[in-house]
């Protein structure tokens, strides 16, 4: 197997008149974790489905685990697993039955399938729920079982489509540790997410997708640098001060609201830089009434990278599932 | 692949494992579908209770008003009721296929290289199981309300075989509709189409009592020869070439439906 586990060049896909992917390139090193970051409708799910051989691309080329996704579909399928946004499990079967079934479909005889299933349930902390129907599982348990189901065939490349969308904070944390463990076990992971923080925590490399095109590609550190990493929000003392601050900051303003007299500036979030910034554009110390800092959101990354708000959805705060993208498949 | 390697080394050649894979897959998918069917309590009960209700409805509400060649109406109507019930229950396959297709699990099966044929065959097998239970219940009810037959073991085996053939064909056809429909509600429309066929056959009233144009439809549609075959087996009446015609219809429908459904599955999930 070559050093690149996933390689895509010029992947293009349209649904009718809607161009969902427009010449997307991607290269993922073997054994690394890569993230596709973007808002709803950016084309993340479509890209993953093409790489997982579930959708055909209109133009471009892609290999996964060293095999062409079009010409060697069967070989690709035996080496990958895909966990989608909606749990691919039978609600009326128990956790054990679901995993057993998947293991048998992966070619194992009954007994081996059973012990594999038991092992995976143990590993994902689901042993106690093994005999319960999946219908009774919480969202987080369901997602964990879903990922476990993807692992029965010991894939070398794992696709996770929005693994934490819709999960509460605690389940998200536990999902993050599951994904980190996967990465440590040596498999290659490509995940999609709307959350910068998630990409930051998990991925070695992040590709930002917007409207079917790549708008940025790099390590999380590089990306955050471009986006400012943190955001400094200022409230000017009055209209005149707002005008002075805005003029003084010039192109560094990433968001402005004259009505509320608010301005936002990218920063790395350190006290030293915030202090220096304040001193620089407010030397008389009377133009800024309040300030606050917070971590850059996907919206900030977008504004910093594209100079406009994200194409759709409300970015990082959005809890909405990928309906836009989903609708494009129907 | 530790477990897998162990078994392969233990003697089962890879070649054979490959060749048996579709069977193994179909078996696994069948067990899944049967299990889901039995646990879908509401749906399962409906497919048991409704056939019995249809049986009672025909015998007690309509039976008195219909002139038939047999002494008791129940003797005449049983094949028609059996086909209407198994047809209805088989047609439910359309709904379960549509529902399955709309969920993520089919994507997972496909990304594991499982063929569409196995997924659909699983649904067809669970339909056979459902129909077996429904038929047994209908027959039990028939005997309770006075149905009698001289059929021996061989004839009963034949009856089971004819019903299975019919259910197999209708279930595959239902799978095709299930793949065409976009919502389970849409797919359930197929049940009505299938329920209609036995009415326009010799299943409930003798064909001779129908207007001319309906007669020619009734005489040449698939349900009529199946009814004749079942009657022949149940009561020893002469069935002529009905068995062959019935077998040809069922085989023809099955072949067309299997091919169509595999093609549609591929297209639907491309």
From TrEMBL, chain A:
The ABC transporter domain, residue ranges: 6-236
Keyword Cell membrane: yes
Membrane topology field: Peripheral membrane protein
GO molecular function, one term: ATP binding
The entry's keywords: Antibiotic resistance, ATP-binding, Cell membrane, Membrane, Nucleotide-binding, Translocase, Transport
Pfam annotation, one family: ABC_tran
Listed GO biological process terms: daunorubicin transport; doxorubicin transport; response to antibiotic
Compartments in which it is found: Cell membrane
Highest taxon, organism lineage: Bacteria
Any Gene Ontology CC annotation: plasma membrane
NCBIfam families the record matches: drrA (TIGR01188)
Similarity comment: family membership: Belongs to the ABC transporter superfamily. Drug exporter-1 (DrugE1) (TC 3.A.1.105) family.
Alphabetized PANTHER family for the sequence: ABC TRANSPORTER ATP-BINDING PROTEIN (PTHR42711), DOXORUBICIN RESISTANCE ATP-BINDING PROTEIN DRRA (PTHR42711:SF19)
Name of this protein: ABC transporter
Naturally occurring in which organism (per UniProt): Streptomyces abyssalis
